[in-house]
Amino acid sequence: MNVREKIAGLPHEPGVYRWLDADGTVIYVGKAKDLRRRVAQYFRPPGQLDRKTLALVEHIADLHYTVVETEEDALLLENNLIKQLQPHYNILLKDDKTYPWICIRKEPFPRVMLTRRYVQDGSLYYGPYASVQHARRLLDLMGGLWKLRICAHPLSPEQIAGGKVRCCLNYHLDKCAGPCEGLFSETEYAAQIEEIKALLSGRTRQLMTSCRERMQAAAAALRFEEAQEWKERLALLEAHHEREKAVGHGILDMETYRLLKEKTLPRRVEKSEKVLAQLQKDLGMRELPRHIECFDNSNIQGTNPVASCVVFRDALPSRKDYRHFNIKTVVGANDYASMKEVVNRRYSRLMAEGEDLPQLVVIDGGRGQLGFALEALMELGIADRIFIVGLAKRLEEVIVPGDPLPLFLDRNSSSLRVLMQIRDEAHRFGITHHRNLRSKAQTVSALRSIPGVGEKTEQKLLRHFKSVKRIKEASPEELAAVVGPKLAALIGSIE
């Protein structure tokens, strides 16, 4: 049977097709919503085909195909076949950096992280997940349930016993149990990992049952604080379980399907290349700074301290990657400590998720802010992987760690312009967020001014109605259902 006869016999169903040459080698793998209609398009008149497709058609000698149930299944099968077969005419998806996995590293006190590289190094991999958002939600859930380390330090018994590693900010934020200083045993940590394996294997009910039993046992023994902790963990697991029932377990959602259909090869703009090459030369960097991040602190008269992080890729803003930070561990307007906190939080998160680190980090400020930011990188063990500089506003001088003299770039140079652009963008982004916070704080204070409304009542109202505007618009009956008729009458009178 020749190729055209095979095409005539194809079903109108989703699937994956493989074109083979005269030697029987697969030269192209493709997916289709309708196999017959899609495959037939290769044999249109030559004038309707592009050069690459014409070259492919000239070498086609045979056709193999596989029918699947859904378009999503076709996408996953196509991805796996391209990686396995490496067909000559497939450009995209040949590498192993497509779908994200959750990896439990093979190491003492294993880290749990997001990665796009499946490496046979003895680590455990769960996935792949078609939606990176789903995988990140799982990591966030783990962060709420267990105290896991994210630092890259090798925690051998000798290092721990010798006190060579100190607890980082995550320990003080109660997100890590501090195994680096021997505050959490390897046996206790291994028990956490076993529970994480159960979660990632879909055994959520088993974990919920265990939490419920421990909560009841603690309550029966009058250990009410411990019982409350188990109750909160149970609530997180129940919310996760309900979500999984509603949306499935993340294998190939349509958002990923849409994104992978688009071309992913980046466009290299010649002007950007020249700008980055000049910046690399002026700063004396080893790598081309394709990925740059800048941090800025913002507080007005010490209120609502926040920070911003903006991201430039190939000398252009990547706004989807911008991040705001509300300062959590620093009291008052301490720019130095705030800078250390946000740099630590930003890169500990990227490391935990297996994301690429930037080649260049710019700190909006002088030696003080730069020094504290550098401390954060050193604590995370990545100071040798990131080139970091400060940009002082007064004279636009570039400060490089370890160099006693600032670097003055030509004010008309492209290097200084791109540094100033990213610094100004970080400042704009941070100020906008800060103003929004102050406005919200002033509005919420109207609730606190009502006799009988404290922090807990305020939080209960905001959790239920989602905003002060909705609280004002609520009927007396709706308010009474949350806080009782007496407070409802008082709250209904706020302007």
Detailed description of the structure:
The protein has 495 residues and is α+β, with helices and mostly antiparallel strands. It has four domains: 3-85, 3-Layer(aba) Sandwich (GIY-YIG endonuclease), CATH 3.40.1440.10; 101-202, no CATH class; 270-438, Nucleotidyltransferase, domain 5 (2-Layer Sandwich); 449-491, no CATH class. Helices cover 47% and strands 14% of the residues. The protein has 19 helices and 13 strands. The strands form three sheets. Strands 7, 8, 9, 10, 11, 12 and 13 form a seven-stranded mixed sheet that branches. A hairpin with a 2-residue loop joins strand 7 (291-300) and strand 8. Helix 9 packs antiparallel against helix 10 (224-247), helix 12 packs across helix 15 (414-448) and helix 13 (335-352) runs parallel beside helix 14 (367-380). Residues 246-269 have low confidence and may be disordered.
